[in-house]
Design a protein that fits this description.
This protein is an alpha/beta fold. It has 18 helices and 27 strands. The chain folds into three domains: about 170 residues, Rossmann fold (3-Layer(aba) Sandwich), CATH 3.40.50.980; about 210 residues, 3-Layer(aba) Sandwich (Rossmann fold); about 100 residues, ANL, C-terminal domain (GMP Synthetase, Chain A, domain 3). The radius of gyration is 25 Å and the shape is globular.
Length: about 575
């Protein structure tokens, strides 16, 4: 049935995430909440809503028994059931959760645990060696709890063992966690933005922030209790957490954990997935592989003809995609009905193609500080190039627009963060009179659709959705005595390649030639290459400098001695 473009899907009100879980458990007790695997390559094991709720209560009860009520608890690891169990048990009555990026090097993990004053860390054993080094010397850290250990030991507790104790305590009548009251406006989630130890900002979110976003998104996108979502993106990202996990739980759906990017197609088949969230790189890769296979099999012409036919039919309210593209749907598990892209701008060509083939595909726009969605296309009212319409209850404005209507995007809603952790000055820079200043440029069309046209700041956005602040990488480079100054930037090789992190470097020849030796250009290049090799080893892979140029003169600077990121300083690019 064709829906009215202004129509909204009905929702039920929730006050907090505890209310979300309790109400979903009452509504869908026997439905599967999760599909997990106990071993790589094994079969998916279902976890029903009722079982999930009881395990949440057991873990929350023991965490309170350990004296962690009101404390900060960090979680780190791959996408898995125990990660989500930890997250929701903490926020629904224990304290403040700090989701950490599993790709961070140990020195950054150490610093963020220290900054957040974490009293406990719950982690995956895949990171055991990193965690052992990262937790040294932390005064506030009282407990390290392994998701995988079978027994407790002097250095770490077993999550399974502790949960068993939690069940025993509940049976003894200890219900403090189960009966805990939630303040919907208090800090419950502390998310550190992508950044070095000195530059990462801690985004403070509340139950109200997240629940407002869940209910608003659910009015535009019809996630159903019969849906199965494949969790592909890292769960410490708000996009995956709010939209890919919490929203389907709110709607009674089921989440299957992906075993890794190489296993997406296999997992789509195994779990009979109906919806997948991803970043543009994932969907563009699928799109490219699809056409390469069609060319190889000599079916590209037939595929183009089928797309043209179905595109014409859809304009008059008919859709023959199930018949015309049966083999493509079967290759994706046979059940996919929706792809949702976020975290970076999607390729309109691939978005349109998937829609023509009967897979509803669209994109949205958001930021961690907005919990995270600001705008998204409705699943029945899509513009392929647009980030979508502002969510219900979200005001979006363009300030100081140019002649084309492009200006900075600012927004206001109950999803706006409480502020930056321990950083009032930075908070005041971005939140003014209740409006959040995104730092992004954009514009509206005549129907109110938002288009993001660029970054106000110089953030490098990779095609897989990673945000890299040039200042972060420069922070590391400038610590080397061999580098006098530098400027970091991103370069897209071509449509199918990811973004490369590049650097223009002014070498401190005085330091290098301290011994009196004169080095050739080739030797200087080799020295800097070795310096970068050492610096890169201390950063996540996606932030590493892949190419560099050596400048013979210093960068042009402002009156406050900041390097200008424009003009003559860009001549080597």
């Amino acid at each position: 049935m064709k829906r009215n473009k202004d129509e909204l899907y009905p929702i039920r009100p929730i006050n907090n995430l505890k209310d979300l879980i309790e109400s979903s458990t009452k509504l869908f007790p026997e439905r599967n909440a999760f599909l997990k695997k106990d071993k790589p390559g094994g079969k998916y094991i279902p976890v029903q809503y009722r079982e999930f709720k009881s395990q949440l209560d057991a873990l929350g009860t023991i965490l309170m028994e350990l004296g962690l009520k009101g404390k900060t608890i960090a979680v780190i690891g791959e996408n898995r059931y125990e990660w989500m169990l930890t997250y929701l048990s903490v926020v629904n009555g224990v304290g403040i959760i700090v989701p950490l990026d599993k790709e961070l090097p140990q020195n950054e993990i150490n610093h963020l645990l220290e900054r957040s004053r974490a009293s406990a860390l719950i982690y995956s054993d895949k990171l055991e060696n990193v965690i052992e080094a990262a937790t040294e010397g932390l005064v506030d850290l009282k407990y390290c709890i392994s998701m995988d250990a079978l027994e407790d030991s002097p250095k770490r507790l077993s999550l399974g063992k502790q949960m068993a104790k939690g069940f025993e305590l509940i049976n003894e009548g200890k219900t403090a966690y189960i009966n805990a009251k939630i303040d919907p406006e208090a800090l419950c989630i502390l998310l550190f933005t992508s950044g070095t130890t000195g530059l990462a900002k801690g985004v403070m979110l509340s139950h109200k922030n997240i629940c407002t976003n869940i209910m608003a998104v659910s009015q535009y996108v019809d996630a159903r209790e019969t849906d199965v979502l494949l969790s592909v993106l890292p769960m410490h990202h708000t996009y995956e957490l709010t939209c890919g996990i919490l929203t389907p739980l709110y709607k009674g759906g089921c989440i299957a954990f992906c075993e890794g990017l190489k296993h997406i197609v296999k997992n789509l088949n195994e779990a009979k997935v109906t919806i997948m969230l991803g970043v543009p790189l994932i969907f563009e890769s699928m799109y490219i592989r699809l056409w390469k296979k069609a060319e190889k099999d000599g079916k590209a012409s037939k595929l183009r003809k089928g797309i043209a036919i179905n595109r014409a039919l859809r304009k008059v309210g008919m859709d023959k995609s199930a018949k015309l593209f049966k083999s493509i749907h079967e290759a994706l598990g046979g059940n996919i009905r929706m792809f949702i892209s976020g975290a970076a701008a999607a390729d309109p060509e691939s978005v349109e193609c998937f829609n023509d083939m009967g897979i509803i595909t669209f994109q949205g726009y958001g930021l961690t500080e907005c919990a995270p969605i600001v705008a998204v296309n409705k699943d029945h009212y899509i513009k392929y190039k647009s980030a979508g319409l502002p969510l219900p209850g979200t005001e979006v404005r363009i300030i100081e627009p140019d002649d084309e209507g492009i200006g900075e995007v600012i927004c206001r809603s109950d999803s706006t963060m409480l502020g930056y952790y321990d950083d009032d000055d930075e908070t005041k820079k971005v939140i003014k009179d209740g409006w959040f200043y995104t730092g992004d440029y954009g514009c509206f069309d005549e129907e109110g659709f938002l288009y993001i046209t660029g970054r106000k700041k110089n953030v490098i956005v990779t095609k897989n959705g990673k945000n890299i602040f040039p200042e972060e990488v420069e922070y590391y480079l400038n610590k080397s005595d061999a580098i006098k100054e530098c400027m970091v930037w991103g370069k897209n090789e071509d449509k199918n390649e990811d973004t490369l992190v590049c650097a223009d470097i002014v070498v401190d020849m005085g330091f290098i030639s301290e011994s009196g030796k004169i080095y050739s250009d080739e030797e200087v290049h080799k020295i800097i290459q070795e310096v970068l090799y050492d610096i890169n080893s201390k950063m996540p892979f996606y932030k590493r400098v892949k190419r560099f140029n050596i400048r013979n003169e210093e960068f042009e600077k402002t009156t406050t001695q900041k390097i200008k990121r424009y003009g003559d300083n860009l001549k080597n690019r």
